[in-house]
Amino acid sequence: MASASELSQTVIDRDSPLPLYFQLKDALLTLIEDGQFQEGDPIPTERELGERFQVSRITVRRAIAELSRNGYLTTQQGKGTFVTTPKIKRPMSQMKSFSSAIIDEGHLPGSRLISLRHERANAEIASSLNVDEEAWIWTVERVRLADDEPIGISSVYLNLPADMSLTPAELEQEVSLWSVLEKKGISLSKSEETIQSIAADEAQAELLQVNPGFPLLLVEGVVYTNQSIPVEYHRIFNRGDRYKYSIQVVRQST
């Protein structure tokens, strides 16, 4: 936990054009990201922060609210405000499997199989996979885990060769579906993704152990082979408090 001396080294600049709550939020965030506040640590009370930085409780509350909204803090009624689990970072410029991304963040990946079906494609899935409507596809639905904590629900629709199949045993033995496909000779090389915010319905909330209405990030995309053949269409519902996506943009000269 951050010591009094570490807090005392943090300065609020009253001549800065930045609002006081924003400066306080950044100061607390720096302590969290530097490891001075660890996961599960309580932060000082509103009164203590107000006295230390000579700001109003309204300023303190706004700073805490911003950090809570961004997933760094959580408030427990009657107990205080605590540092939450760090978010999993997913750079959109890199194509990684769920398992690889989770391992890179220092967590243990896992999956729980909900359903494996060989079924006919509806119009939306057929269009995404560039196959005829009613074509046979494989549907894989799983809960994705990080250190045994449910953090996402994955619905994957696969256009596989007619002589290729999937079994529950394969998916339970291998966390990465892409690794399963690679063992079958299918190599994936690029993807197209969209992300939007939605609210968890009752079924999703139960699987993710959150309340209905909890913020989720819906990631939809198509994954292609080296020959630009669409093999996978997916809809992934990730917990908004556990993920942070980043995008690198390069300005083009005019």
Describe this structure in words.
The protein has helices spanning about 5-10, 20-35, 45-55, 55-70, 100-105, 125-130, 170-175, 175-185, 200-210, and strands at about 75, 80-85, 90, 110-120, 135-145, 150-160, 190-200, 215-225, 230-240, 245. By secondary structure, the protein is an alpha+beta fold. Strands 4-5-6-9-8-7 form a six-stranded antiparallel sheet. The model has no long low-confidence stretch (mean pLDDT about 90).
CATH topology of the largest domain: Chorismate lyase
Give the N-to-C terminal Cα separation: 50 Å
Gyration radius from CA atoms, angstroms: 22 Å
Low-confidence stretches: none
Sheet/helix structural class: alpha+beta
Task: Write the CATH architecture name of the largest domain.
Answer: 3-Layer(aba) Sandwich
Q: Name the CATH superfamily classification of the largest domain.
A: Chorismate lyase-like
Identify the CATH class of the largest domain. Alpha Beta
The total count of helices amounts to: 9
Question: Count the strands?
Answer: 10
Order of helices and strands: HHHHEEEHEHEEHHEHEEE
The order of strands across the largest sheet is 4-5-6-9-8-7
Helix content: 25-40%
What average pLDDT do the residues reach?
88
Q: Give a short account of the largest sheet.
A: 6 strands, antiparallel
Beta content:
25-35%
